[in-house]
């Protein structure tokens, strides 16, 4: 199965403020050879001006961008923040952002919780969240993707995680941001087969994917940190995803403990090699850069 056309192509990198300077100073040829697109959380950049704003603009003019939201709280009890949505829509338009995604979770309840909380896996929650996603798409005037998230408890569950995700995506008629690290983490924490879970997802709705590292707290507990290198088991699951759904654009997330830029780009290059293996012989890729 495949979702065509994808909003971006190839391999991506999450742009964090701590990476602005290092990436500006990096060998431009090496950066262009490794990175086809970038991603930011719009909340971190809306109305940012001055030196930081100019630095950010230098990247949006150079690379295609996607956005991954942090604070929309799709599953939260408070009313949907339509003021924020209108600001996000203006940001997406200003920077010609190719795609907007959010977490299938919630992060507010009479205030911001500063964490991604699990939505109860119930039929009632499916209806509630799907309605909020549809309203989000109406306000933004574009389809969005939702991300399968890592979670550490499933309060009041009536459905399995995979049943819940599939039901939300179907009822909301939205797309999917596929995070294979979150599948790996959840499969250990909740005791299920990651390949079975992966293959039950709606691959025709995948718009792009995330790849990240995590922390091994215990043999049966993994914590999704985005602060370490991607482990072999997650790389293997990425290969399985490409074999199952075909090659889709995939982005490396790293939020802290940043290595030197060449080491970071080595991980991005490893994504490309996985894509090339899965795609098999064919024409060389064509970079879709803003300046190209």
Q: Can you describe this structure?
A:
- α5 runs parallel beside α6 (161-172) and α9 (232-245) packs parallel to α10 (261-279).
- With 292 residues, the chain is an alpha/beta fold.
- The chain is globular and about 50 Å long.
- α6 links the parallel β7 (145-147) and β8.
- 41% of the residues lie in helices and 17% in strands.
- It has helices at residues 17-25, 28-34, 50-60, 82-94, 123-140, 161-172, 180-190, 194-199, 232-245, 261-279, and strands at 11-14, 37-40, 65-68, 100-103, 106-108, 112-117, 145-147, 175-179, 206-211, 215-218, 221-223, 250-252.
List keywords for this structure.
292 residues; alpha/beta; two-stranded antiparallel sheet; eight-stranded parallel β-barrel; 41% helix; TIM Barrel; 10 helices
Strand content: 15-25%
Class of secondary structure makeup: alpha/beta
Unreliable residue runs: 108-115, 283-287
Distance between the termini: 30 Å
Order of helices and strands: EHHEHEHEEEHEHEHHEEEHEH
CATH-assigned homologous superfamily: Divalent-metal-dependent TIM barrel enzymes
Q: Helix share of residues?
A: 40-55%
Q: How would you characterize the largest beta sheet? A: 8 strands, parallel, barrel
Number of domains: 1
Q: Number of DSSP helices?
A: 10
* Quaternary: single chain
What sort of overall outline do the alpha carbons produce when their principal axes are compared? globular
CATH class: Alpha Beta
CATH topology: TIM Barrel
């Amino acid at each position: 199965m495949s979702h065509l056309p994808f909003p971006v192509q190839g391999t991506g990198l999450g742009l964090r403020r701590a990476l602005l300077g290092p990436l500006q100073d990096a060998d431009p040829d090496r950066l262009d050879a490794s990175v086809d697109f970038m991603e930011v959380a719009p909340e971190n950049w809306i109305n940012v001006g001055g030196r930081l704003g100019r630095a950010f603009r230098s990247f949006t003019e150079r690379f295609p961008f996607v956005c991954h939201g942090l604070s929309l709280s799709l599953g939260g009890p408070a009313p949907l923040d339509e003021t924020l949505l209108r600001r996000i829509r203006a940001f997406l338009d200003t920077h010609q952002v190719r795609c907007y995604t959010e977490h299938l979770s919630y992060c507010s309840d009479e205030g911001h919780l500063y964490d991604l909380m699990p939505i109860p896996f119930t039929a009632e929650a499916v209806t509630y969240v799907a309605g909020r996603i549809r309203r989000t798409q109406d306000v933004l005037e574009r389809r969005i993707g939702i991300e399968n998230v890592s979670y550490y408890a499933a309060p009041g569950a009536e459905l399995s995680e995979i049943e819940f995700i599939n039901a939300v995506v179907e009822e909301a008629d939205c797309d999917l941001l596929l995070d294979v690290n979150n599948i790996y983490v959840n499969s250990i924490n909740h005791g299920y087969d990651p390949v079975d879970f992966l293959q039950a997802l709606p691959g025709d709705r995948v718009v792009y994917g995330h790849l990240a590292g995590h922390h091994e707290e215990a043999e049966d507990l993994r914590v999704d940190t985005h602060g370490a290198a991607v482990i072999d088991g997650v790389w293997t699951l990425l290969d399985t995803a490409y074999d199952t759904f075909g090659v889709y654009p995939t982005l490396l997330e790293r939020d802290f403990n940043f290595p030197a830029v060449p080491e970071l780009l080595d991980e991005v290059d490893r994504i490309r090699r996985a894509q090339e293996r899965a795609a098999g012989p064919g024409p060389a890729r064509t970079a879709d850069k803003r300046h190209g």
